Every structure is written in C-alpha cells, then in structure tokens.
Amino acid sequence: MSLRTRFRKLPILYPALSAVRMKAGALYMRLCHAIFGVDRSTALFSSYNGRGYSDNPQPVSEALHALRPDLKIVWEFQRGCIPDDLPDYIRPIPAHSLKAVRAFATTGVIVCNNNRAHYMLKFPGQIYVQTWHGDRGFKKVLLDLHPDDDVPDGAQMDLAVSGSRFGSQVYRSSMGYDGEILEVGCPRNDALVCHTPADVAAARSALDIPPETRVLLYAPTFRQAERGRVQHAPLDLDAVRRHLEAVTGQRWLGLTRAHGHARAIEANGQRDVSQWPSINELLLVTDLLITDYSSVGGDFMLLNRPVIYFQPDRDAYHRERSLYFDPDASPLKVAHSEAELMELLSHPFDAEENCREVLDYFGTRETGRAAQAVAERIVVLMNS
Asked: What is the pTM (predicted TM-score) of this model?
C-alpha cells in the first residue's frame, strides 16, 4: 500500500497534507519559472500521469518529432513504466518528482491526456494541449461529475483535441473550456482508421492467435472498489465463448483487458492481456467486443465490427459515476443480463450498419491523420 493510500485512510490528516502539498507545489512552480523561465525548445508529454508511453500523446510526440526534430522531447514516467523500446530522442523524467514539477513550470509545450493536479500553474509563453483519453464514453467526468471541484485545465488550455461533437462538448462542460478544439479525431485512433490486413496479421502473430480462430475481447471500465485490484467479470465468459462457437461454427479465443486503474481480470478460462502494451493491437485482432461503459467501444466501432455493452449493474453504476446519456435511448446494442447477451449473440446483427449509426449518434470525426494535424497546429502556436 502506497503512502498516499495510507494517508487517505486518515480523514483529518489527509486533507491537511493535501493542502500543504498543493501550496508547496504551486510555490515551487513559481520559483522554477522565476529562475529558469520558459524553454520554448522543449516539449513535455504525459500519458495517464506517467503510467506509460501510450495513448493520444504517443503519436502526437512522434509526429511532432518528425516535424521538428530540433525540439527536445521529454516524457514523465512513473517507476517501472519506461518501455524498453522508448525512442532514443526522448528524455524520461520521474513522474511526481521535483524534476517533473520543474519541467511543467518551464517547458514550452505540454501535452497531456489527463487532467492536471489542482496546484498546477501555467505561465506566459507555455502552450498546453489536452488530448484526453476517451472521446465517446458514458461516464461523467470532472466538473460534470463534481461541479464544485477545482479543475485548472479549462482556464489554462490552448488547444483541445477531439474525435466527435460529443467529445468536444465534454471539454466545454467538464473543464469549463471555451477555447480552440481541433476536431480531427483521437491521435491513438489513426492506427485503427488507417490499418491494413498486414497490421492485423502482425498483431495476431505478436499475440500468438491460432489460425482460423476468432477473438472475443472483454474490456470493461472500473468501479472505485476495484482500483488497484483484480477485476471480476460479472458474467461467464467461457459460456459466452462456447455459445459463440455453437452459433458461428468457428473456434473462438477469449481475451480480457482490465481498465488501467485495475491490475487484471479474473475470468474462467480466458487469457488476460491487461498488461499488453498496445490496446490498438488488441482491437485489431478482436472480432467481437464486450464492454460496459468504456469509451473503448467507440474506438472499436471504427473497425466496423460488433460491440455489445453488458450493463447488468446500470443503476448502481449510475449512482457511482452518473452517465451522460441513456444507453437504451441510443443505437448501442445493450444487454442488461447474461440471458439478453446470449440472445443478442444468437441473432447476429449488421455490425457495419450499427457502427455507422452509433458513430453518427456521437457526431464522430476520425480523419486518420489526427496526430499530424495536432503536431502541425502545435508548431503554428509555437511560432505565433
């Protein structure tokens, strides 16, 4: 158990320590800025607060380096999260460290996919780009969930990156942001929009998927009680897999992917791929996705393959997080019980038509060149 988790269990001490930390963090940022100013030749990237070289910031980082190889690229990483194949032009720094706070106070360009800590400041001459990490999700976030919270992002952002009208509106309401939104798609989805059969074959080979085998992927979001723990599938995935084999006459392999806040998924007889580094590779090999309230479904639909939303705990989950819309009033294929799920599987639907309806419902705009468009816009902002 981390010190932060231990302190959270102390209802009096934790708020006091958090207040001290925020004041100290802001003071240190001001001090670093006063001494070092802003280095316009450096770009700092952060994915999930340092949990990996991944998601939307990764392709933006690569596109920006291709456009401006003279820029110094810095990434923050939590302990144990630096990949072995990190490009050699990237300088890693430890997340949640004094070095990282100094970087956030002095770097010319900052690209993040998560909201900033409450004490974070932005100084004149800095450019802050927010890509977020889920464009077409169900869950209310930030100010939409906690209207009285202190979210600094909206007032600090220079650019937001969106893949749909729905995603753009969430920036407005959840962050109080009224600035520029580049609605060109989620950079992480470029690889899905522009994938080739060779990409699928390479992913199947990397994941050791047997020939002539179709893939079922179960990828739920998380509940607060599952944070840092093993998730438990609320359905018999092996029975689902066997049912698919009976309906299709083909062999199926079951994979499970836990949310990033959990460690793994416990499900009988399925292969857990929660630690697989590339979610896109998992989506490319998947023939049927079952999720619950995760935005991964909206990404997977770019492949025109079937998605079923299994939501047996809708009322309880809505009380925990609140939802942006009623799934039953949308084109989504929703099952409220295992029996309803089996019924949907017994009568296959037109996946391509359903994907088109759902993507239209969200006002989706995925161009396949989002990373390039974001990098180009960053260069323009740097030169303005």
From this structure: 0.93
Instruction: Quickly count: other Cβ atoms within 10 Å of residue 229's Cβ.
Output: 15
Which CATH fold topology does 14-190+368-383 show? Answer: Rossmann fold (3.40.50)
Fold of the domain built from segment(s) 195-362: Rossmann fold (3.40.50)
14-190+368-383 and 195-362 share one CATH topology? yes
Amino acid 20: pLDDT: 81
Coil, strand or helix at 195: coil
Instruction: Answer for the pair 255, 233: CB distance below 8 angstroms, yes or no.
Output: no
pLDDT digits 0-9 by tens, 322-377? 999 999 999 999 999 999 999 999 998 999 999 999 999 999 999 999 999 999 99
Question: Domain coordinates of the chain in residue numbers?
Answer: 14-190+368-383, 195-362
CA distance 168 to 190: 18
CA distances from 136 to 16, 28, 74, 227 (A): 36, 36, 29, 22
DSSP alpha helices (H): ranges in 37-134?
57-67, 98-106
Position 281 confidence tier, pLDDT thresholds 50, 70, 90: very high
The Cα 157–Cα 129 span in angstroms is 6
Structure tokens at 348: 């296959």
Residues 6+ apart with CB under 8 A from 222: 231, 258, 259, 261, 262
The Cα 253–Cα 283 span in angstroms is 14
Whose tokens are 């029975």? That residue is 239
Cβ atoms 374, 109 nearer than 8 A = no
